[in-house]
Amino acid sequence: MENSPQMRKWLDDLGLSHPLVIAGPCSAETEAQVLEIAHALKDTDVTYLRAGIWKPRTRPGMFEGVGAIGLKWMQRAKEETGLLIATEVANKDHVKLALDHDVDLLWIGARSTVSPFIVQEIADALEGTDKVVLVKNPVNPDLSLWLGGIERLHASNIKKLGVIHRGFSTYEKTKYRNIPEWQLAIELQNKFPDLPLICDPSHITGKRDMIFDVSQTALDLNYDGLIIETHCNPEEAWSDAAQQVTPKSLVQIMKDLRIRKETT
Ligand code: PEP
Ligand code: MN
């Protein structure tokens, strides 16, 4: 797969004066919750509203997402606020439903990137799409699996590609939920400098008070964007409660990141 300036085009076409910001709850919970967060993010730096509809939980018995009904809530959020909408897809049925509901950005989650069969199924279902497709790194620190995912989507003629760095599982206890292993993302960036690289500080840190520092590191490393889990009532969130920030905190984080940039 050749690197090509075409890869950046979708990002450049958004005409942003700041890093790309994707924000919204870990999971869509209710229609009211989705609409409340969408309206709170409307006049901020956020371009895409994210929400998980199908949630891949490591252990069974936890909240596994509201399913396709959530796509209707997101569509309504888009109509009411003008935000573009983004969700995770993990099989071809998810892809079909997401496309039927005008989802603008689809991402492949860390637990799917580890499976070449699943990635291929999604790539086939998305063949030739003009939607933005982002590939999260696999849960384990394996650059080849990440590259393989990108190559499969590229081979399916998906032009608006990008990657999300969400950190890697480790057996050791660290201050991170998923250790960043920045060098792996940098290696990928060196191989494909024109592939937009987005940092997911929420899943790297697992804690809202660490989001700013990890976001700052990502921007210092020239990342193109951030995906930050945001919820109007984070403590009550049905998944990933400890890492979600309020819309107000998100606005403050973006402001502080900008001030840091201007003063360095
Ligand atoms: C998510 O974005 O909510 C998610 C499940 O992320 P990951 O695939 O990185 O674990
Ligand atoms: Mn999450």
From TrEMBL:
EC number(s) recorded for this UniProt protein: 5.4.99.5
Record GO biological process: chorismate metabolic process
Domain of life: Bacteria
Keyword vocabulary terms for this entry: Transferase
Group of enzyme by EC: isomerase
Record carries keyword Transferase: yes
Keyword Transferase: yes
Molecular-function GO terms, alphabetical: chorismate mutase activity; transferase activity
Protein name: chorismate mutase
Organism encoding this protein: Imtechella halotolerans K1
Span within the parent record: 1 to 264 of 360
